[in-house]
Structures are given as structure tokens and as C-alpha cells.
Automatic annotation (TrEMBL), chains A, B:
<keyword id="KW-0368">Histidine biosynthesis</keyword>
<dbReference type="InterPro" id="IPR038019">
    <property type="entry name" value="PRib_AMP_CycHydrolase_sf"/>
</dbReference>
<keyword id="KW-0378">Hydrolase</keyword>
<dbReference type="InterPro" id="IPR002496">
    <property type="entry name" value="PRib_AMP_CycHydrolase_dom"/>
</dbReference>
<comment type="pathway">
    <text>Amino-acid biosynthesis; L-histidine biosynthesis; L-histidine from 5-phospho-alpha-D-ribose 1-diphosphate: step 3/9.</text>
</comment>
<feature type="domain" description="Phosphoribosyl-AMP cyclohydrolase">
    <location>
        <begin position="33"/>
        <end position="105"/>
    </location>
</feature>
<protein>
    <recommendedName>
        <fullName>phosphoribosyl-AMP cyclohydrolase</fullName>
        <ecNumber>3.5.4.19</ecNumber>
    </recommendedName>
</protein>
<keyword id="KW-0028">Amino-acid biosynthesis</keyword>
<dbReference type="Pfam" id="PF01502">
    <property type="entry name" value="PRA-CH"/>
</dbReference>
């Protein structure tokens, strides 16, 4: 179970689509990807301990790895100083990128 | 002088405001901040070797550290697999965050 300070997710500045950008970073520091989360996705991440996002292309809640098996166990959820960006610190199973690369920034 | 593959910045998917999200990461792996860049900001970054962004609050091109002195020397500019996010690998002078913290995600 991930713990967050009370009200942190309420205080986030979601954009006009109701989304915030999320950086997924491996524990060794590697930035794996940048994706987007809705409040529902953040709640699911905190509740399950696995990274959830909002797929802008499919317009649906997206559990990372639900199809591929390339799950992201979330160790910590961090919010930036002005509460408009989120960082998931993760343990990635398999490659994070759909191309098969470890990182989408490879 | 930073070198990028030809056409990389032309191929970026800018959002409806003409912006892309940019992750600034220190060479040791620390994620310092998430900000936004216009094409003009990316061009200025590549041309000068110092991180430029688009300030959404001030609605202007923003050379990081121009006022504070907390410049970001950019070692590399990376684009993600679907060309809608950018990563600046940087050498940060002083704290990256306006709060005085090293990272905006502290």
C-alpha cells in the first residue's frame, strides 16, 4: 500500500482534460516514459501499487502491462512543487517501451 | 553545440498550444523538474546548449536561470518513442527548484 499525504491528489492541478503528466522513473534513476494520469488513474495506482495511466489514444484507464505483462510496481508517488506534475518511482517488469526498449527515451 | 538527428524537432508532436512536456534530468539520474517547451525554446536550447522552456504563467520564452543564475547546461536532448515528450540531460547550477530544493520533486 502506497501512502501519500492527505489531500495530495485533491490538490493537484489537472489540465483542461482532467489529466496530469506523469514521469515513470526506475529506481536506478532511468527515466522510462512520460504518460498521463487522470484522478481515477492516480487513485488506482495508490490503491493497487501498480502504475495506472489514462490512455489519450484509447481514451480509457490503462493499467501499464495489463496486456503485455510489463507491469510497473510503484514504490513512491511524488508530486512537484507546484502540484502540476507527478513522478512514479517504479520497479519495471520487462521493457517499459512498446518498441521493446527499456526506456521510451532510448 | 548539441547535435540532433535532422528533422527531430520538426517531427515532434506539439500540443494544441504548440508545446511539448520536457523532463530535466541531472546526469546522476535525479529528475529535477517537468516544464514545457515551444519549438522556439527547443531551438534556443540546441543553439546555446542551455535549457530554454516556455513559461506558461508568464507566456514567454524562458531561459532557465537567466534571473537566478541557476542555469542548466544541456548535455543531450532526447525525444521519446512517439515524439511527444522530450528529455534534457543537464548539468544543473544551484537548485533547480524555485523553493531552493535541488529537485522540484523533492
Amino acid at each position: 500500500m502506497l501512502t501519500l499525504a492527505p489531500g495530495v491528489l485533491d490538490g493537484l492541478k489537472y489540465d483542461e482534460r482532467g489529466l496530469v503528466p506523469v514521469i515513470a522513473q526506475e529506481e536506478d534513476g532511468t527515466v522510462l516514459m512520460l504518460a498521463w494520469a487522470s484522478r481515477e488513474a492516480l487513485d488506482a495506482t495508490v490503491a493497487t501499487g501498480y502504475a495506472h495511466y489514462w490512455s489519450r489514444s484509447r481514451r480509457e484507464l490503462w493499467k501499464k502491462g495489463a496486456t503485455s505483462g510489463h507491469l510497473q510496481e510503484v514504490v513512491a508517488v511524488k508530486v512537484d512543487c507546484d502540484a502540476d506534475a507527478v513522478l512514479y518511482l517504479v520497479r519495471q517488469t520487462g521493457p517499459a517501451c512498446h518498441t521493446g526498449s527499456r526506456s521510451c527515451f532510448s
